[in-house]
Specification:
Helicase, Ruva Protein, domain 3, Rossmann fold, disordered C terminus, single chain, 495 residues
């Protein structure tokens, strides 16, 4: 088998690689004794090839699948970074460990910028080399799992790309796959920023002829209360001021496909009753009209609120809740699948790369990101990676480049005195005491978040609608802040 370069590798080689997850190493050095001893040390753990020059090494790579190259900087036909540049140009995904005679920080930095995965200074212990190889092998395994997951998704719609290989995420995808072929309504629960709409689009993509079936997304929280009925059911000409023509509603547009109702818990009780009837009868009547229109669709609803609690409080219809929750899927928060952070970081770094140059991130910086609780979940992680990709001047993202606000949550690291518990008095009833405690806690969080109600809701781990209800119930002022950006309006809340 002869391979001209990496892009031309045959399918037989790729099949062999998938069957054998071993990490194949090529050692390129002009010291024959060094190569002999190295192969003796590593042969029990790895498949090891060796070459005495860069050209000899490249010839080996034409015939063998190589995962990692141990490259000496002083070869007969290559000096300094020349060999690294030539090798990465032909085989960009191969890991390269540079081997130097002396530790030169400037050379090391330049090597990493040119694509080196790590470096070693002679003489080095075999254990030191094995530690690096194990790390690279773990990254390769994670990358292979990532590629396998992506291959199972719809490649034509990047919005359907769900990334993750953690046990919690794999279980979610397994459950989602079982919905295929069943015209059953689905309720997706999960915190803001976990990717509920992505999961909805993934469910849609699983069905046959999904590219020809409609997928209609509606953010119920983003549409004014006075317009949402018209958006969902449509209206006839002249049915209200401004209705200059007939409008086809979302339920009608979703005929033969799926309608995604995001933030379903924000709907008022009267509209909940109308939607329940549509789900039961699969018929709608446009606002201002009297003609019944038949439509057949599947509802995929989502919310970050605890719907069962809303049902107990009488804020959400129990019959509608059960009608929507034929299948219930729960998106795990990012803090419960931290194993997926490296994969997501790699994806976002590639997504926000400029001029084809993908920035790298150091182990310490990546570890810091993994240890953060991510109250804003994947959306927050994406924004942080996007930020550092823009603001980091070099091609290497270090811990110092991470924004302090991203890892400090609300309050930007400022310390604010805790409110403590309300003072107990003999005249206070249980309900009054709880009310004062809730008020004190919410005011404290709002102060930390400088009045930003969206950040406060994330910090409290509740939905914005729940926070708004509490603010009204406890008669708490909104302070001098807003939801996002200080405009005082209620923005659309994406899943």
């Amino acid at each position: 088998m002869t391979l001209a370069n990496e892009s031309g590798q045959s399918s037989n080689i790729n099949k062999l690689r998938r069957k054998n997850m071993a990490y194949n190493i090529l050692c390129i050095d002009d010291d024959a004794d060094y190569l002999f001893n190295l192969k003796s040390d590593l042969k029990k753990m790895y498949t090891v090839f060796s070459g005495g020059s860069l050209n000899e090494g490249l010839d080996i790579m034409k015939n063998e699948y190589i995962d990692g190259v141990l490259l000496d900087v002083g070869l007969p036909d290559s000096v300094g970074l020349d060999g690294l540049k030539k090798l990465k140009n032909q085989y960009p995904s191969v890991d390269v460990i540079m081997v130097t005679g002396e530790k030169d920080p400037k050379f090391i930095v330049n090597s990493v910028r040119e694509g080196a995965s790590d470096y070693l200074t002679k003489p080095y212990d075999t254990d030191e080399l094995v530690a690096i190889l194990e790390k690279l092998q773990a990254i390769k395994s994670m990358r292979d799992r990532h590629d396998a997951l992506i291959a199972n998704l719809n490649p034509e719609d990047t919005r359907c790309r769900l990334l993750g290989s953690s046990p919690a995420f794999r279980e979610l995808l397994t459950q989602a796959t079982r919905v295929k072929g069943h015209n059953a309504n689905v309720l997706i629960l999960g915190e803001s920023g976990t990717g509920k709409e992505l999961l909805a689009r993934y469910l849609h993509s699983l069905e046959e002829n999904s590219t020809r079936r409609p997928f209609i997304a509606v953010n119920c929280a983003a549409i004014p209360e006075s317009l949402i009925e018209s958006e969902l059911f449509g209206h006839e000409k002249g049915s209200f001021t401004g209705a200059i023509g007939r409008k086809i509603g979302k339920f009608e547009l979703a005929n033969g496909g799926d309608i995604f109702l995001d933030e379903i818990s924000t709907l008022k009780p009267d509209l909940q009753a109308k939607i329940l009837r549509v789900l039961q009868e699969k018929e709608i009547v446009r606002v201002g009209g009297n003609q019944t229109v038949h439509t057949d669709f599947r509802v995929i609803a989502a919310t970050n609120d605890d719907v069962s609690t809303l049902v107990e409080r009488g804020q959400f219809r129990m019959d509608l809740y059960h009608r929507l929750r034929v299948v219930q899927l729960v998106m795990p928060p990012l803090r419960e699948r931290k194993e997926d952070v490296p994969m997501l970081v790699a994806y976002f770094l590639e997504k926000y790369s400029k001029d084809g140059r993908i920035k790298k991130i150091t182990t310490n910086a990546l570890s810091r990101l993994q240890n953060y609780s991510w109250p804003g979940n994947v959306r927050e992680l994406e924004n942080v990676v996007h930020s550092v990709a823009i603001l980091t001047p070099s091609d290497i993202i270090e811990e110092k480049n991470l924004p302090h606000w991203a890892l400090n949550g609300c309050g930007n690291g400022k310390k604010t005195a805790s409110p403590g518990l309300p003072e107990l008095t003999i005249t206070a009833t249980y309900r009054e005491y709880i009310r004062r405690a809730e008020r004190s806690y919410i005011e404290y969080i709002l102060t930390l978040c400088e009045g930003d109600r969206s950040k406060a809701a994330v910090a409290m781990d509740v939905g914005r609608t729940t926070l708004y209800a509490k603010l009204k119930e406890l008669e708490i002022g909104m302070l001098s802040g807003s939801d996002n950006g200080g405009n005082g309006s209620r923005p659309a809340q994406a899943s």
